[in-house]
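Worked example (supplementary).
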Amino acid sequence: MAEGVSGIAELMPVEPGYKHVLRVRAAFFWGAITAGAVFADFTTLRHAPFHGLLSIAISLMAIGILAFLPQRQWRHLRYGLTDRLLQVVRGRFFHRDTIVPLVRVQHLDVSRGPVEKLFGTATLIVHTAGTHNSIVTLPGLDPTRAVEIRDRIREHIRSDFG
Amino acid sequence: MLGALVREAQGMWALFAGGTYAIVSGKAQWILWVAGGLAALSLVRVVVHWWRFTYQLGTDEVLIHSGYLHRNHRSIPFDRIHDVDIRQGPVARLLGVARVGFETGGSTSASQEDGALAAVDLATAQELRRSIRGDRTRATDKVAAGAQLGDPALEPLFAMDSKRLLLAGLFNFSLMLFAGLFGAAQSLRAIPGADPFEPAFWASAESMFGPFARLLALHRIVAVFAALLLVLLVGVAAGLVRTLLTNFQFRLDRTSAGLRRRRGLLTKTDVMLPLRRVQSVLIETGPFRSALGWRELSLQSLASDELRGAHVVAPLANSNEIERILHEIGWRAPPENGDWQRISRSYVWMSLLAYSPLILFIASPLLLFGAVAIWKFDALASFPTGSIRTLVLIVMAMLAAIGVRISLRWLAWKRTGYFFDGDRVLIRRGWWRQRTFILPAKNVQSLDLTENLIDRRFGTVSITFGVAGASGHSLPAVPREKACQLRSELLSLLASAGSASMPR
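After joint prediction of all chains, the assembly is encoded as:
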């Protein structure tokens, strides 16, 4: 435990591929919203004076969000790992800085969804015993890196009870 | 089995209500058939459930087999049982049975216990507990069986006499209930003569109270005060009844592994609290209680109490008694005057900021009126005076409400703070619900610092401590440097404590 008293890890960015994962997920979400808007325009708003405005506004907004948001989200997602804690920092508007002491980890998951597989990333899920925030996720990791981190944390759990 | 039947019957209140409605509205026959069918069905269900429900006490586990079509075999190792609580409702007491609940802290929803035997007779229930607890404390075999359940001859650690119970009931008057009653009084308006805020209500009471009621009927303002008094009285009475029901014959005993709490008037509960499961201590009080030196002590552990998260171990106690209980269970009482760190004043400003759209919205018609008055005074005359008066009244009432909110926030700000006390953090919050948490560093599972746009403007963050089985450990609007300092201090403690205590 050679860490300094401050003990906060040096923060690293996650894989750039995570931007695409975020974009595809956002595309699904905003695609659905846009479809809803278009549908509304052709049904209930058919005779409204602003007919068509909703579809255009929503789709423009969706394009804007898809173009700029994933980069921002990716840029502000950082993580750090030392030999005694895992730190996950995310967001700018709604900033959240979570620290999990490794000795507190109960169990670990590495999960990969279809979109994540497509872009070569994986999500590390850390479970603690806490009620608040008992599940801490770290997305956008390289799969081998995720497994490596998992094994490193698992060492701590093992030595804890051994 | 009877217990289950009773529960089933309780579940059918809605049906009874519906049936009554149907009888009143003249569709009785049809609904009676449905109700009869459902009742028969649930009777069958209860019988089948009882028939197929068995439990078994193994050498180191409880086995519960249940279900007819979908058979479920559950095994609960003694080692994982936090609490064994024995609970007797009024009907169960008549029949001499009790419900035995096993709490493992693993349940996904807080309301649902992990395993429960709905109705076993009381002696068996005690025996069950003795064997489960006995197994848990096998290491200290020398401890007499009496100590395991708390020797009845010994002085209880804490008990409430009737005077204390009454006092607790007076403090149990809840604002929420008050608001509810107020709302009910308002909705009674629809029925003529039933709204205590109208003189007519008191006029109808005239025959009972004579000249006093006539006075009320004449003066509306007096009627309003009388109504407030009435609502207040009902609120106090409800608080008294509620306290009497839950905390009657409250008794806390020290046992070999922890504490044993017995209480209840109609429904008697008997709960064992193993001490090593306690994650943090909560001391709660209010403005009135704290002025008179009364506090409520609860223990937050992995298992949750019947209604609230924490187990109340002393509903109304003075500081000496609290200190005694804490000492007995090996915790230090919070020091009288520590180095309490205040949170940022921005906590108050932030709420003002949150209300700012509302304030603007309210102020805009006033500004409009002002502008019209300056620009062309005559134009004001064209507005009906009545509407202007109503508008001004509404605006004033809303501004007053916001003012009250902000002042409450300010009071809360004055009391909110934290104190890093060696190997633990003390967190103090709130003005109306004055809560003090004692949180040992070794029980912190994770740490969260969050900030939003407004926070960033003020340079503050909110800290949330992840604690197993308990919530509420958070601090708003802590200056950033202070928060980081607190965090690093906690982390260095955690590193040195290492693997000290994983809750099990």
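Two points are worth noting when inspecting this output. DSSP finds four helices and seven strands in chain A. The first strand of chain A starts at residue 12 and ends at 13.
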